[in-house]
Amino acid sequence: MATLTEQPAPEDLFRHVLRTLLPIVNADLGGFFVFDEDFEQVLLGTLEGDPPAESLTPVGVAKVPPTQVPAERWIREHQRPLHLYRLRDWQRFPPVNPGLRELALRGKLVALVIPLRSQDELVGVAYLWRHRHPRPFLRREIREAERWCQLAALVAIAGRLYEREAQARQALARVLAIDRLLTSASSHDAVGRAVVGPLADFLGVESLALWLRWGEDHKVFFQNIADETLRETLTTWEFSWSHFEQLTSRPQVVPRERAYETLGSWVEALPSSVDRIILCSIRSYANVVALLVGWDTSSRSRRPPNTRHQMLEAAAVLLEQIAVTLVRLSFRAELERTISDLRSLLKVSQRVVSTPSVADLLEEVERVIRDRLRYDAMIFLEPDPDSPSTLRVSWGSGTIPESRVGHRIPLDRSLAGWVFRTGRELLITDTWEDPRTYHRPGQPFPLRSLLLFPVRYEEQTIGVLGLGRKRVSPFSEYDRELASLIASELATTIRLIEQRHALRRQAHHQALLATVSQLLLRDFDPRSFAPPLVQQLSEWVGGSAALVLQCSVFPNRVVATVDALSSHRLPDLEP
Questions:
Q1: How far apart are CA 157 and CA 159, in angstroms?
Q2: Where is the GAF domain (predicted)?
């Protein structure tokens, strides 16, 4: 029996079913064809039996899109078997294969086309042909063929699921590999050189141009663009970054004529064979920081639609990482030109990219800047999940009660609440002179001079960072710049932590899907794959699990259970 790492391929399982089915229904040749979700291509095509001498090879048959096969279009619409044995049947549903078509029109071919369905979804079709003795199929033969095709449908959907999971795993691996390159990049040039090649491969395009922004200036990077005239055109292309503010930040495939409206006349310089272009903007907050344009010069080099869709979805995560890297590099370049004293903080910023929590980040930042800013308390407030009208201190330093983790302040009667509601920073010389200050009952607010910054991501305030002094000692412009940088890095870190958690959850789910797919492909007998499948589900949910299967192919009910919680016994599911 095949192991989890050496499970039989879907084609092998299909051939095994065909070798069993063909003698049962007295067919000479049979085939299974699995479609993609969009009914635009054949993912798997398997033939077994004795083809007539006039027919083409199986490979030639499997490459034909289902939309170009009349019988398969009819099956998709009506979802029932199609029996072809009369001349008028073949005139309406001629075979795509020239050899089979000639036999059919000569009355020497009979075919049975059966849909492969899974939960009312058409996943493929089965063909059974008779050419030696071309007599119609009997009703009992048709019923028997339909029963076996129910089993083949399980193989088809498992094969499609395994293919989808493999593509998702490949996309995730590429995202992580490019993310490692971005972590080591120290300049915009390094980012451009590191990502332009992998991005082209990741998005499945033959050629790609990537513009990275410096203020209102930019530099373009190329992948597989050998034409010197085109390279010169793209290098000297003048545009305003504001022109692309309405362009989506998710990669999209657009017709050439639509791309002309967005990109301008240089699109005419592309090869005439380019009819579709992939483009998107890369953003940080509302600002466009990069522009990506890719294309294929040959339609044969394009990915299938379903594959490209999955890769584009995963690419959106990678593009966010590129934007974060570009923004961080821009901040660092600006600060190195204006505030040399912040070099140590920038080093901290680079180290905390992989920080596991906001608390770890703030503790590291405080270690570096406390002596520079000379504050008595630093706090970070977030919306209270239990009370929408208050802010809650999620991290704090200092001895005052207001910096204690868990301390709550009202949104509508406090300085921090004003910053959170308006999204604007606040520098207060003396809080006792400001009517917006929140004083605890019977106790004045202990901090006199205060600096508050909103922590924002994508035009949304997600928290408030506050620095305070017990005495009236106004914060300087240097202090304000430093606090602004901390708030920006805090927003970026929160987003990165959320993305890492999402990637871990996705990897965990994909690992489960991979294990389930392997179990289904290893053995198509439910009695064999049901027990280990239930065991995997039980381990995943951390509790008891049960599986009950019953179909016409296996008249006896298949029951598998795992009772992980002895205090909650599973009911008896046996028939």
A1: 5
A2: 9-166, 357-504
DSSP 127-179: EEEE-SS--PPPHHHHHHHHHHHHHHHHHHHHHHHHHHHHHHHHHHHHHHHHH
DSSP-derived letter for residue 427 is E
Structure tokens at 72: 């398969």
Distance (Å, whole) CA 136 – CA 140: 12
81: its two tokens = 């078997």
C-alpha dist (Å) from residue 530 to 3, 162, 514, 526: 15, 17, 16, 5
* Domain boundaries defined on the chain: 10-161, 185-332, 344-487, 525-575
User: Could you give phi then psi for residue 64, rounded to 5 degrees?
Assistant: -75, 125
Residue 107's region, left for phi above 0, alpha for psi from -120 to 50, else beta, is left
- Model confidence at 367, pLDDT cuts 50, 70, 90, reads confident
Strand-pair category, 426-428 with 408-410: unpaired
The CA-atom distances, in angstroms, between 48 and each of 18, 157, 419, 481 are: 6, 20, 71, 73
Q: What is the CA radius of gyration of the chain?
A: 32
Cβ-proximal residues to 529 (8 Å cutoff; 6+ apart), any chain: 519, 520, 522, 523
The DSSP bridge pattern shows strands 276-284 and 287-295 to be: antiparallel
Determine phi and psi for 78, rounding to 5 degrees: -105, -20
**Predicted local confidence at residue 306, as pLDDT:** 43
Domains 185-332 and 344-487 share a fold: yes
Q: How many CB atoms lie within 10 A of CB 510?
A: 17
**CA dist., res. 455 & res. 492, Å (int):** 9
Fold of the 344-487 domain: Beta-Lactamase (3.30.450)
Predicted TM-score (pTM) above 0.70 = no
Does domain 185-332 sit in CATH 3.30.450.40? Answer: yes
Looking at residue 479, its amino acid is: D
- Among residues 158, 122, 148, the alpha carbon closest in space to that of 36 is found at 122
pLDDT tens-digit readout, 11-68? 888 888 899 999 999 999 999 998 887 788 888 888 899 888 766 555 445 567 898 8
Chain segment 410-422, per-residue pLDDT in tens: 888 888 999 999 9
Task: Specify the fold of 10-161.
Answer: Beta-Lactamase (3.30.450)
On whether the CB atoms of residues 7 and 521 are closer than 8 A, the answer is yes
CA–CA distances in Å: residue 463 to residues 42, 319, 333, 355, 482: 50, 25, 26, 18, 17
